[in-house]
Amino acid sequence: MSLNSNRLDAFLSHLGVERNLSPVTIQSYQEDLRHFIAWLDENCIDLKDLQPEKLDEFLTLTAGQEEYSPTSVARHFSSLRGFLKYMQNQGEYDYSTESMLSTPKLGHYLPQYLTREEIDSVFESAANGKNPLRDTALIELMYSGGLRISEALGIKLSQIDLENEWLMPIGKGNKQRLVPLGSKAKENLRAWIEEGRPLTHPTTDNIILNAHGKPMSRMGAWKIVQLHTMHLSKQVSPHTFRHSFATHCLEAGMDLRVLQELLGHADISTTQIYTHVDKDFIKQEHRSFHPREMGGK
């Protein structure tokens, strides 16, 4: 066991003995922090030697994970803040992380969303790539359908109704929901399913397959995303497309509760956090709709 792992054990013991937290809460801390400890060990970094710029690198990496929503990122940061503060008190870490891990700072690490023009450029890249039908279909599921990467890779042929234009993904908690299928998405998914997919000699009924007819891995999907977004100046992950879907729907005026249903969120508060709207757009909307801004003075 590494020295970093021993430090984590000491912190978890502190949570149980001195703070009297429940085993479930302690397990949650452990799950959040094991990624940080593994990252330290993989990079041969002793906690005492961790520089703020390297910590920033880890935080950016964490926020970019495809399954991490802003609420998940906030929870991870909270656990890490508690751990590092404890290590400071024990003389095991020398740098203050209050400013880097404060709540307002979270916005810096949340996944970026792509503009409509950037989305168009990604579709254009996919259309001109080596596997245009498959790559376009994958991006349609993530952006046009707003699916999580696990949902996009796991969705079956039986969960798409091209005639009636519905997707029926199974999300968290094994809950199935209905997501409308737009005309462009329908056209591109049909092209892959009917023309490209059979050429892989499928061994499964998953819609998205690798070149050998087997379910595509997350790493495979990540590589496709990187390939078609390398021309952008933003750090993009599969999760970015879901975030972009949510942001664009909200900007276009979609009701928040409808968006909640489409995203498969059990609690609307998650949707409110997850779907930020940029400040310029808020100002624009205010000028367009507020009576005193519309000449009603």
From TrEMBL:
A biological process term (GO) from this entry: cell division
Ranges for domain Core-binding (CB): 2-88
Signal peptide range in chain numbering: none
Transmembrane region(s): none
Q: Which UniProt keywords are present, listed alphabetically?
A: Cell cycle, Cell division, Chromosome partition, Cytoplasm, DNA integration, DNA recombination, DNA-binding
The record's subcellular locations are:
Cytoplasm
Q: Which InterPro entries match?
A: CB, DNA_brk_join_enz, Integrase-like_cat_sf, Integrase_catalytic, Integrase_recombinase_N, Integrase_SAM-like_N, Tyrosine_recombinase_XerC/XerD, Tyrosine_recombinase_XerCD
> One short Pfam family name for this protein?
Phage_integrase
Principal location class: cytoplasm
Q: Which residues form the Tyr recombinase domain?
A: 109-287
- List the GO terms this entry assigns under cellular component, sorted alphabetically: cytoplasm
The catalytic site is made up of 148, 172, 239, 242, 265, 274
Which CDD domains did the record assign? INT_XerDC_C (cd00798)
The protein's superkingdom reads Bacteria
Entry GO MF terms: DNA binding; tyrosine-based site-specific recombinase activity
Q: Which PROSITE patterns match?
A: CB, TYR_RECOMBINASE
Subunit structure as annotated in this protein's UniProt entry: Forms a cyclic heterotetrameric complex composed of two molecules of XerC and two molecules of XerD.
Return the similarity comment.
Belongs to the 'phage' integrase family. XerC subfamily.
Q: What does this protein do?
A: Site-specific tyrosine recombinase, which acts by catalyzing the cutting and rejoining of the recombining DNA molecules. The XerC-XerD complex is essential to convert dimers of the bacterial chromosome into monomers to permit their segregation at cell division. It also contributes to the segregational stability of plasmids.
- Return the protein name: Tyrosine recombinase XerC
- Originating organism: Fibrobacter succinogenes (Bacteroides succinogenes)
